[in-house]
Amino acid sequence: MERYNYFRQFHDISPADYNLLTEHLQPRSFKKGESIIVPGQVQRELYFVKSGVQMAYFDTDDKTYVIDFSYFPGLCAIAESFSFQVPSKYFITCLTDSELAYLSYEQLQKLLDQSRAIERLFRRMIEAMLADMVDLPIDLRAMTIEERYRSFCRKSPQLLQLVPHKYIASYLGIDPTNFSKLFNQVKI
């Protein structure tokens, strides 16, 4: 029910369309530290997070740059790789043991052709994702590090206990030492 309500934030999908979408999901488990996608691999499945936390990132030199975190009830994907069926430039790695369900690219395309509501749902989810992608670099430049930290804590407070702080610091564009100070001094 929680995932259904999550989808309805984007589009008021009927229970019948929701069941059409979810009846084809297949389960898959990953262990902490296991990669779901690596650079050069085409993401052929769209993952629906049932439990756990995953991180999308890339490495250059000796530094990890975190792009995003995924967790229930959201989706887990490298959008470019899945949508266009091209090799990924990024990793998705499980930060905790994770239970996911997936649809193949081909299955999703059939569902999008079959149901206008499912197609509209995914279009609106992509639009929301694009808006977030536009907002993030603006927020990184316009907000102070404390404002970024507070905003993150409002949106995803549970991640403070589940994700190594160095990764949250990377995502927020904050030096790990400054993140540690914020974590210890700013009460949320």
Give the helix/strand layout.
Blueprint: H1 2-8, H2 15-22, E1 26-30, E2 35-37, E3 45-51, E4 53-60, E5 63-71, E6 75-76, H3 79-84, E7 91-94, E8 98-104, H4 105-114, H5 116-142, H6 145-155, H7 159-162, H8 165-172, H9 176-185
Kindly summarize this structure in a few lines:
By secondary structure, the chain is of the alpha+beta class. It is 48% helix and 24% strand.
Question: Could you characterize the architecture of this molecule?
Answer:
It holds the Pfam family cNMP_binding. It comes from Chitinophaga varians. This is Crp/Fnr family transcriptional regulator. The chain has 9 helices and 8 strands. It is α+β, with helices and mostly antiparallel strands and 188 residues long. The strands form 2 sheets. The chain has a 4-stranded antiparallel β-sheet. It has a 4-stranded antiparallel β-sheet with strand order 2-7-4-5. Strand 4 and strand 5 form a beta hairpin. Helix 4 packs across helix 5. The longest helix has 27 residues. The relative contact order is 0.16.
Low-confidence stretches: none
CATH architecture of the domain at 2-115: Sandwich
Which structural class matches the secondary elements? alpha+beta
The CATH superfamily name of the domain at 2-115 is Jelly Rolls
The string of secondary-structure elements, in order, is HHEEEEEEHEEHHHHHH
- Just give the CATH class of the domain at 2-115: Mainly Beta
Shape: globular
Helix content: 40-55%
Report on the biggest sheet: 4 strands, antiparallel
Between the first and last Cα atoms, what is the distance in angstroms? 29 Å
Say what oligomer this is.
single chain
Strand arrangement in the largest pleated sheet: 1-8-3-6
Kindly report the average pLDDT value: 91
- How big a fraction of the residues is strand? 15-25%
Rounded Rg: 17 Å
CATH-assigned fold name of the domain at 2-115 = Jelly Rolls
What is the β-strand count? 8
Number of helices: 9
